[in-house]
Amino acid sequence: MSTSHESHHAPVDGAGGPSTTGHEWDGIQELNNPLPRWWLWTFYATIIWAFGYWVAYPAWPLVSNYTSGVLGWNSRSAVVEQISDLQKLRAASSAKLANVPLEDIEKNPELLSLARAEGKVAFADNCAPCHGAGGGGAKGFPNLNDDDWLWGGTLAQIQQTITHGIRSGDDEGHQGNMLAFGSILSKADISNVADYVRSLSGAAPGDTPAAKKGAEIFAANCATCHGENGKGNQELGSKNLTDGIWLYGGDKATIVQTITNGRGGVMPAWGPRLSPTTIKALTVYVHTLGGGQ
Amino acid sequence: MTSAALKPEKSPKAPAVPDEEPLYAARRAIYPQSVHGRLRTTKWVLLILTLGIYYLLPFVRWDRGPNAPDQAVLIDFPTRRFYFFFIEIWPQEFYYVAGLLILAALILFLMNAVAGRVWCGYLCPQTVWTDLFLTVERWIEGDRREHMKSDAGPWTLEKVTKKVLKHSVWLLIAWWTGGAWVLYFADAPTLVKELVTFQGSTVAYASIAVLTFTTYTLAGHMREQVCTYMCPWPRIQAALTDEYALNVTYRYDRGEPRGSVKKAALAREAGRKAGDCVDCNQCVNVCPTGVDIREGMQLACIQCGLCIDACNNIMDKINRPRGLIAYESEANLEARIAGKPPVRRIVRARTVLYAALIAFIGLGMLYTLVGRSDEGIAAIHDRNPVFVRLSDGSLRNAYTIRLINKKLEDRRFQLSVDGLPGAQLSVVGVESGTDGEVISIGPDQTREVRVLVTHQGKLASGASIPVTFRIRDMVTGATASTADHFIGP
């Protein structure tokens, strides 16, 4: 190539190299390396794809609605479909759980892990807000890991409690309240009973005059439900006062408050909300947290 | 162009006539000519070796005894196992795969430090399959000249027949490539039987379809464009190379000035310098990516060395020494031009470092692989609640413990806890017998159990006592242990 011929060509980078675009900044020239044409066509294809997408799927917001797309797809129906797929997938394992008696599930390692896995998820969804993520409980909400049960810790008792609840309005649910003694007993009497109750679990000395007075008041007013020796009664959901485990707190002020105003925590009935299989799984899960009897 | 020529000359400072060059360029058809030579033979050997391994490996059997697949290489997704001859990788041992990837990267770096992009030229799947597809193309449509002539000419029945035949063979190869891929994920003979009787899974058919399409497109149609536009390796390689790396290089000091054999002979007689390059363009014609190696190192060059073979053949014919194009380092080229002794430095900081790292990681992996046990235990302490006070005043901690049995037979393990004298251990769902808590696990399986540890005595406030969970095989006595803590209020 002669120089005169080259003069009306774009400048070239070195011998035989690609031409430059002619743009120059501080002596740096931009090479003109054309993109491959298929690249351009790929770009056009994505644009066409975008138009197709607008038509096929929900895409554009309108004043009070949105374009729904000719495919009729929406995320809500997609979720419904996925859940039904999941249920189909789980049908076999759910059937296994449903057909085996509650007492036999824990004897079978496969069923046990199945029930615990399902129970864990159901617990997190439904029970954790009150009982805590690991069933550790909170003030007024029993710790499900220990061996202290208000209404009983056998599989059947746990299943009954979950299904029908406590003071839930369900006819078969557990009833029974801790009465408010504020209008029945004097403040001094309540204080004495509180001292006695604390002595039952060894939290306070039992040989003080106050505790001795409290023992008499206890026998007259509290023993009906809590038993003469304060061991409680699971039929009534009355608490065992001799162990060191407290639902609302074991300090004197809290006990005085409990005696004065009474207690009556509510657990909802889960029978109407959860499937029998799920309740079964939940029962096994709670039972195997460690306190199961 | 003509109108531009009539305009007055522009100053060199503003030379812009950029619109003459297109922004987008259609692909320039490349018709690489066949070539014979040492490097071509090497490529043939590697092609047969690598493709042979790829296509046939799934059919190699490896007896692992009962309860285990007998396929030598198997990626078993349903049971989450990876089998490689005598090695069985569990999901939690995925670090071996990570290690292999790191090794692969380092080996690539080492290859690059020693001899440039040899990976690209000889072993890269894109190169190997493109080479195979080119061979089919040459076999059906003829070598460079014949093929070019046919493509430029009118559509005849013969041309159509050849094109149809070529694409059919390509699709067949592509289909078999996809087919071989899925065989790595299931028992190969069974899957083949299922596939031909249309009993195979949708995933298998879809995978084959996708891989057929990509193989056909990438090796048949995209070819060098994958290397030039899509592959990141040329860019990375450019950042990793140095002046001692061997690259396919045109020795311009020997080749220039170019000229015909006659002109060169005349020039030499007259005592003038004459290059060995006779401008025969053979190096360009044989190049599968269509570059001219005489322009120096460039991005599109995959360094397959076919131009070396082509040039050597010409040099032999014109009785000039071979190696006008050769694997040559920048440093050696410069040394030769400066009249200094040749430079060959394969042992240098980066190659030593790469080799040391490869050896270190490789030996480390080997060491852990050899020292692997057939049983394992892992524990997670309950976080919420961390501990529980029982009605009798004792303290209890709960753990989720997973036991691993890598042997291909049922095993029974005795579980015990050390570090907390007097503590009682119980496993949910397991009856306590005379041997204590004995947990059975099926072959090649894991089992998760909930373990409760109860302590009667008093603990210091805020106690966190180190404990060790231990399992012991009831038959062989093999043990495994894991450390955790017993926590008090």
TrEMBL record, chain B:
SUPFAM superfamilies: 4Fe-4S ferredoxins
Pfam families (alphabetical): Fer4_18, Fer4_5, FixG_C
Coiled coil: none
Gene3D superfamilies according to UniProt: Immunoglobulins (2.60.40.10)
Keywords carried by this UniProt record: 4Fe-4S, Electron transport, Iron, Iron-sulfur, Membrane, Metal-binding, Transmembrane, Transmembrane helix, Transport
4Fe-4S ferredoxin-type domain residues: 268-296
GO cellular component entries: plasma membrane
Signal peptide: none
Protein name: Nitrogen fixation protein
Organism: Azorhizobium caulinodans (strain ATCC 43989 / DSM 5975 / JCM 20966 / LMG 6465 / NBRC 14845 / NCIMB 13405 / ORS 571)
Gene that specifies this protein: fixG
